[in-house]
UniProtKB/TrEMBL annotation:
InterPro entries: BtrH_N, DUF4872. Transmembrane segments: none annotated. This is BtrH N-terminal domain-containing protein. Residues 155-324 form the DUF4872 domain. Residues 14-142 form the Butirosin biosynthesis protein H N-terminal domain.
């Protein structure tokens, strides 16, 4: 059996920040989950729909692993990423650091993990691995998935080899601190401005504040868009509120990040952004409840109301990011 010593196997709300927390605490850097999310410029929005999709997808963060790259750059960390099509080499890429006493991050398809509570394919899931024996791998996942967990090596291999949307080729990664890490206080403003710029200037109408406005127009049609409204709308509401988002489609995490920043930096723009994201978080939870109610009742009035709230959210988040862009 190989076990990395001194692991703080603390599960958080979101998978990528959970894994990053494990790796960074092992390097002596202990940051809150909102700070990890915010320094990684993690907040975003995407509305995605196509003829090949059974139902539209709402996303509230940047694409998988972009948060990790952003955070490493912000804190001046050395990020070593390994990818391969060879299962044998993929295992060596993981076993090597573990044998040397360093935890490893993995991107994989959660469907194949023994402990996972929802049997759904998601190729952008990220976990931290801190040990293995002849049968099992020892991982840290989100709090809702159990925190410190284990899964069979065969299932782990399938999860890492999976192909499909958002998957990576057996991606594994480690983080090290080459010298003294950058102070989070010195990096929060660049991270916030990076996030704000992307949100305010999306390249297509499906993203950022424009994406939220587009969603406002589409949500009232969702009963007609779905072959199984009860299932599709209920699942969408759960994904928004509970499936690793930290609540309110990641807006709760970003609200708390801005609150933490306001304790470090005295800025009216920051306080404005925080107040608006506090309002946005409440409204996103309301949208999720309205979508769920529409799924249960089949009453389109809930979706009309959700569309109205989303119209307000597009404005509120745009105003918040405009204020934050002035930092």
């Amino acid at each position: 059996m190989v076990m990395v010593k001194g692991i703080d196997a603390r599960g958080m709300q979101h998978c990528e920040t959970t894994a990053l927390g494990v790796l960074l605490r092992h390097e002596g850097i202990d940051l809150s989950e909102p700070m990890l999310f915010g320094l990684g410029s993690g907040l975003s929005f995407v509305y995605w729909d196509s003829k090949a999709m059974g139902f539209p997808f709402l996303g509230g963060r940047v694409k998988p692993f972009e948060l990790t790259r952003n955070l490493a750059a912000a804190l001046g960390l050395e990020l070593l990423v390994e990818e391969t099509t060879s299962p044998r080499k993929a295992w060596r890429n993981v076993a090597g650091p573990l044998d040397a006493g360093r935890p490893v991050g993995l991107q994989l398809d959660s469907y194949h993990l023994d402990y996972f509570s929802t049997e759904v394919h998601f190729g952008g899931h990220i976990v931290a691995m801190y040990g293995y024996d002849e049968q099992d791998a020892y991982l840290v996942d989100t709090d809702q998935q159990g925190g410190a967990v284990s899964t069979g090596l065969a299932g782990l291999a399938r999860a890492r080899a999976a192909r499909g949307p958002m998957t990576a080729r057996h991606r594994s990664f480690t983080l090290t601190v080459p010298g003294g890490p950058a102070s989070p206080r010195d990096r929060v403003i660049p991270a916030i401005r990076t996030c704000a710029d992307a949100f305010l200037n999306p390249p297509i109408a499906n993203l950022g504040h424009r994406g939220i406005e587009k969603t406002a127009g589409q949500v009232p049609k969702w009963l007609q868009r779905s072959d199984d409204p009860r299932e599709d709308l209920s699942r969408t509401a759960v994904l928004m509120e509970r499936a690793g988002t930290g609540g309110a489609l990641f807006r709760t995490l970003y609200r708390d990040f801005l609150a933490e920043c306001a304790q470090l930096i005295d800025s009216g723009h920051l306080r404005t952004g925080h107040a608006l994201y506090a309002e946005a978080a409440t409204l996103w939870t309301q949208v999720a409840a309205l979508v769920a109610a529409a799924g249960e009742s089949g009453d389109a009035r809930n979706l009309v109301q959700a569309g109205s709230v989303l119209h307000d959210l597009s404005r509120i988040e745009r105003e918040a990011m405009q204020a934050l862009s002035l930092l």
